[in-house]
Amino acid sequence: MNVLSIGWGLVLGFTIVDRFQEGGTLGMTLVLLCLLIAVFFSFKAFTGLAGSEAEFSKNKKLIQHAALLGLVISFMNSLLGLIGAFDAIESAGDIAPDVLAGGLKITLLSPLFGLLVFIIGHISSFVLTWMRKAELGQEN
To answer: What is the distance between the alpha carbons of residues 24 and 76, in angstroms, rounded to a whole number?
Structure first.
C-alpha cells in the first residue's frame, strides 16, 4: 500500500512540491525563476533561429547566464542552510546521527535543483547551436 501511495505522490507531484519547500522556499523559488528565464530565452531563440547572429548569440548567452545564476543561487541557499543547521547543532550540544543525516539530505535538495537548471540551460544552448548550424547550412 505504501508503494502505491508513493507512486501516486510522484505522479501528482506532491513529493516534488514537498521537496521544493524542504529545500528552502525563497532559495528554491529564485532557482525556479532562473529556470523560467532560461526557458523563456530558449523559446525566444528557437523562434528566431534564422535571425541575426547578434540576436542569436545574445539569447544563447542569456540562457547560459540564467542557468549559471540558478546554480550559484542554489549553492548559496545550501550553504546558508548548512550554517543554520550547524548553529542549531552547536546550541543543542548533542544530536542523533539520523537527525544529522536527514538535515544533510535536505541541504542537498537545493544544489540538486540548481544542477538540474544548469543542465537544462546548457542542453538548450547546445541544441540551439546545433539547430542554428543546420538551419544556416541548408540555406547555403
So the answer is: 11
Residue 140's SS3 state is: coil
**Distance (Å) of CA 107 to CA 16, 18, 32, 133, 137:** 15, 14, 17, 41, 46
C-alpha cell at 106: 535536505
Q: Distance between CA atoms of 107 and 110, rounded to whole angstroms?
A: 7
Residues 6+ apart with CB under 8 A from 120: 35, 38, 39, 67
What average pLDDT values come out for the chain (140 residues) when binned by 10 residues?
50 68 86 96 91 91 97 94 86 83 85 95 95 76
Say what the pTM is: 0.81
